[in-house]
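Quick one:
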Amino acid sequence: MTATIEIGFIGLGTMGTPMALNLLKAGTPLVVWNRSKHRSDNLAAAGARVVDHPIDVFARCRTVILMLADEQAMDAVLARGGHDFAARVCGKAIVSMGTMSPDYSRCLSDDIHAVGGVYVEAPVSGSRKPAEAGQLVAMLAGDADDVVAVRPLLAPMCRQVFECGAIPAALRMKLAVNVCLITLVTGLAEATHFAKSHNLDLTQFAAILDEGPMASDVSRIKISKLVCGDFTRQAAITDVLKNSRLVMEAARDAATSLPLMQASLALYAETEALGLGDDDMIAVIRAIEERTAGSHGKSS
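Output:
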């Protein structure tokens, strides 16, 4: 893959836009499409070729990166199940960087290979800030030669890339990472709620956490947002709820018990029901606060 070959990029959301911008900054020529066209403006200003339809991306590019929200969006862009599917993916390398069901990804891989295409899983760990900084962590799965071909393309977006084996191993690994991330952030929100309920100094609480053995990039960012009451989206409640459901579906398939994730899933569903789906995942504290208020109401 040389800098003179145009790469397709479809899906310019919270993560996709900074990822695509980092590719452009590294000199990768991009052809981009997004359902909401105004989201392409920043990419156009940075030198990307913006097209009017997904089919135009596939027509111009042998490698197409998809950073899409869900399986329905994937199927729509690929025209999967329709007459245009083979024409879009035959002879193409499809690189899926979103988080999907492992079972869905396995079936999609079979369908793409059946019509002469290449499919590589490349889900990433990280939110908007790491995406902007090119500091995501990618997990790759697919045929060995395909993974080797795709890996250099990810360098401008990722600080580290791990090869996980055959599809859907990368997505399973991503879901395992999400179990840690989601329960960590939920626990941080609960700890902050506990501190607030005892009228502790939250700035001091944050400083102690930041200097302690449990501190991480994630905990430092999220505790700062909690102290400031800043719920600006980095990883949205709705997206985390989707990922939580994917984790629990995969756990059921493996007959695995995940009690902390089960509790987290309920809390993120309650947070979304409060109308906070577009807020950052740390807004899960609102559901915890609602439970506290509800328990006080019952006791009175």
